[in-house]
Backbone:
């Protein structure tokens, strides 16, 4: 692990802080460390979800470290497990990640937010993609943003580098909540606690279903349910937790999840 990454465990929630002053830019070494952290989250049965945030107050992340790029690091460099930032291509991450956007999310920083499942943003945060003005494209955003926004808005952001304010991101549904900057981590922790109250297998199944059905119709999605092809879904149906939930409801008590 690198000093640029700080990990703090809070019960079943792991808080991951990217801390590389001044802008939390990500070079290949930092990206590899982030991949290791998110793989550890995936593989740790005691963890339910994660929060990803940036150190300081101005930047969530400025994305790819252009100083490292100028020194010879290329888009073909080894960014580690999960691709850039440890999340962009970690498609088997079976636990939700909440982005706590403490400041500007630029380029790859914006892409990191898009790779998370939920997001809480500071009201003064901005989001933009400058890559087309640098002679490249934002690979992950070019794939994810048109699925999250009307195509014309996605095209405008990708092709012009226009800055999007947090209020507009909320209006388009890119973030769940916008709060004062001082309240970002508190709001993210509140959301994480709400998520962590759900059954771990249910969360894993939802991640599996989201990924498997991204390009399927609703009818095809139901067919996949019925086919037995969703391994975690099948485990959930036969799990102790699937019995514990209704039992706890009828007994008027909080459920005790076992993750099995």
Residues:
């Amino acid at each position: 692990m690198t000093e640029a990454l700080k990990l703090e465990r809070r019960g079943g929630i792991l808080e991951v802080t990217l801390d590389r002053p001044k802008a939390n830019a990500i070079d290949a070494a930092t990206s590899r460390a982030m991949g290791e952290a998110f793989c550890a989250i995936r593989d740790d049965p005691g963890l339910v979800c994660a929060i990803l945030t940036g150190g300081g107050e101005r930047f969530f992340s400025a994305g790819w470290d252009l100083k490292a790029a100028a020194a010879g690091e290329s888009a073909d460099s080894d960014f580690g497990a999960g691709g850039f930032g440890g999340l962009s291509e970690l498609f088997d991450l079976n636990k939700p990640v909440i982005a706590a956007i403490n400041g500007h999310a630029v380029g790859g920083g914006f892409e990191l937010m898009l790779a998370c499942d939920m997001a809480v943003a500071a009201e003064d945060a901005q989001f933009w993609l400058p890559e087309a003005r640098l002679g490249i494209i934002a690979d992950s955003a070019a794939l994810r943003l048109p699925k999250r926004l009307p195509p014309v808005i996605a095209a405008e952001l990708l092709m012009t580098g226009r800055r999007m304010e947090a209020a507009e991101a909320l209006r388009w549904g890119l973030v769940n909540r916008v709060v004062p900057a001082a309240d970002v981590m508190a709001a993210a922790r509140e959301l994480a606690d709400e998520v962590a109250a759900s059954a771990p297998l249910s969360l894993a199944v939802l991640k599996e279903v989201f990924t498997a059905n991204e390009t399927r119709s609703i009818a095809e999605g139901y067919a996949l349910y019925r086919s037995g092809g969703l391994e975690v879904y099948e485990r959930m149906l036969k799990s102790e937790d699937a019995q514990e939930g209704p039992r706890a409801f009828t007994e008027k008590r909080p459920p005790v999840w076992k993750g099995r």
